[in-house]
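Hey team,

Filing this mostly as a record. A colleague (T.K.) asked me to run one chain through the structure pipeline before their review meeting, and I want the input and output archived in the tracker in case anyone asks later how it was produced. No errors, nothing strange. Just documentation.

Input sequence:
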Amino acid sequence: MEKNLKEAIASMNILNTCGDTDRMVSDVICDSRKASAGALFVAINGVSVDAHAFIPEVVANGATAIVCEVLPAETNPEVCYIIVENSSVALALIASWWYGFPSRKLSLVGVTGTNGKTTTATLLYEMAQLLGHKAGLLSTVCNIIDKETIPAKQTTPDSLSLNKLLSDMVEAGCEYAFMEVSSHACSQHRIDGLNFKGAVFSNLTRDHLDYHKTVTNYMNAKKMFFDMLPANAFALVNADDKAGAYMLQNTKAKKLSYSLRSIADYKCKIIESRLNGTSLNINGNDLEVLFTGKFNAYNLLAVYGSAIQLGFDKEEVLVAMTRLVPVAGRFQTILSPRGYTAIVDYAHTPDALVNVLCSIKEVIGSKGNIITVVGAGGNRDKGKRPIMAREAASRSERVILTSDNPRNENPEDILRDMEEGLDNELKRKVIKITDRKEAIRTATVLAQPGDVVLVAGKGHEDYQEINGVKHHFDDKEILIEIFNNEI
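Output structure:
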């Protein structure tokens, strides 16, 4: 496939050009290793690597056009150089054009927020499928094109991969697409140039400060998503989160809200909670769902509001909601033969951990103990480690601090950081077991009938990353293996 370079750069803010733009390009790349004859290379100044350094190599391998922020010291007269203010923005616009503007051919809804993105986006996908529509999903757990599952490498893919996936959805006949929109994707302009039908904001708590540095920067990154929405889109936010109103300040989209506590367009009341489900009332309609906890009530309310805004029939939506099932690694419950319950959850932020623990306590009250197994990821925001330990110990009868994904850090150092959040009283509840499998096993040994063992932090992940190497590890598999030996 060849396309004219002039068309590729037509919508871009170009500062300068060097060379003839009237030429054909055979491919668009941002990875210098994929350079080939006739390619258009976009040089991104990334977090760890500045691809401008690879321009000579790309030109030597036959690239015919270069988009960059700084003109190289040496240029090739056979190559066209396009100078732009921001290469990431340029790549997003070019990627959308290269794949035929696929987002314009779909009803695309993005979900952002600290917690709840995966659940909300996945349940919207499931909702569309249940109502007889072909749909696609882009999520932390996996990407789905109609019914074909593709492994996900990151929450929101790079612009080229993202538009390729959306193009494949169009090709497969999908009408709808639902995607998680990460703060990294917003600040790195990966979603620029996409045509969104709607956006959902779940909540905002501390996360990714290793990248954004401050909570304000993190919040503003998410707000960028709402600021870019067109007037014919909807912007649905959690009115019970103080950042919800902030997201709506400058958006051109239709402003909507959902709430469990405030006046809102979509309201929900929890009637009864159980470990395997909840009785809800949504906008005056009673229904039973297979989800537990206040945080899931918020997620379901966001799903309901989005579905209504997409034009789905209200009665059909309510029926479909009773058939939705929890997402892998999100409050997944497994009953032990010995009479206690294990819950696997992805909670890896202080707020998410609090939500899960409070939900468990709401159901079991004083009838059982909570035993929590939790760690914190290496090479990530160290500031949340003591908070995670303190929240876990404050809301559990016993806590086992253990390894999560230590990456390139020493697991013992991570656990010491977590311990700093504990006073002497909380320390009496806590033990440290670095080996995660042994930590889970110990928690099950301590559990008595009626207790709940929460294994938090990894959820759907089926690996542990240690010293840069991923080793197979699945919390749910470990628990099932233990339960099989209990029979």
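Quick notes for T.K.: The first helix runs from residue 5 to 8. The chain has a mean pLDDT of 93.
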